[in-house]
Amino acid sequence: MTERDVQAVIEASDYVRHGGVTRHGGSYSTCICPKAACGAVASGDERDGCPEHSLNPAQYWHWSAECPQVLAAARTAVDRGLAVIPLPSGGRVPEPGWQRQATLLPERLPELLAGRGVGIGCRASNVVVLDLDVHGDDDGPGVLAALADRLGEAVPETFTVATPSGGRHLYFRAPMGCTIGSVSGGRTALGPGIDVRGPGRRSGGYLVGPGSVVGGLPYTIAHNVPVAPLPDWISQRLRAQQ
Predict the structure, then answer these.
(1) What is the topology classification, in CATH, of domain 68-240?
(2) Is the Cβ–Cβ distance between 192 and 212 less than 8 Å?
(3) pTM for the complete prediction?
């Protein structure tokens, strides 16, 4: 099946292809590989060596009017009161004006996320999120657990997203009028390996949300429970840092 044939199938089906595309030398240099998780982009040797592609060239594409894995995760986030924003397919950084696209309406998700990744806007969601990194010497989960133990506190169960590195995003409902901002690079008052995303004073921060795939690796829901209120022992330390 030629490139033009594949495009004709997509257009005739009125479907939207899920994933990014780059044209090079008259052909598509990236494609969606059916052997990978939904939304994972294969290219180069990985694509060329995929037996599914050899058997069925049409499977150079993954197309769907509603990519089920992405939309299911996004709808779960919205059900938990998290405002979804679109991200570039396979990317981490939203386009300018993303704050105005944040939605809590599930009926808007199919159009908003067609061929896109899932992001979460903190201000529209009224959440503070702890990004617990696991990379090199960083052990965000261990640092947070040690701080809680030292204070005689407990880290409450809350909506949690697993990141590709093995880290976690812990979502907490912010109190009214919360202006906790975003801090990266392990410079938060909670300790090394812990970044913070919050409502801030203006536009607020954002995160890669569940259902997104970056570098071929997915962000997944690790703990699907209601978003817990931000604990005072965390809030006090973050407010003191402002």
Answers:
(1) Prim-pol fold (3.30.2250)
(2) no
(3) 0.75
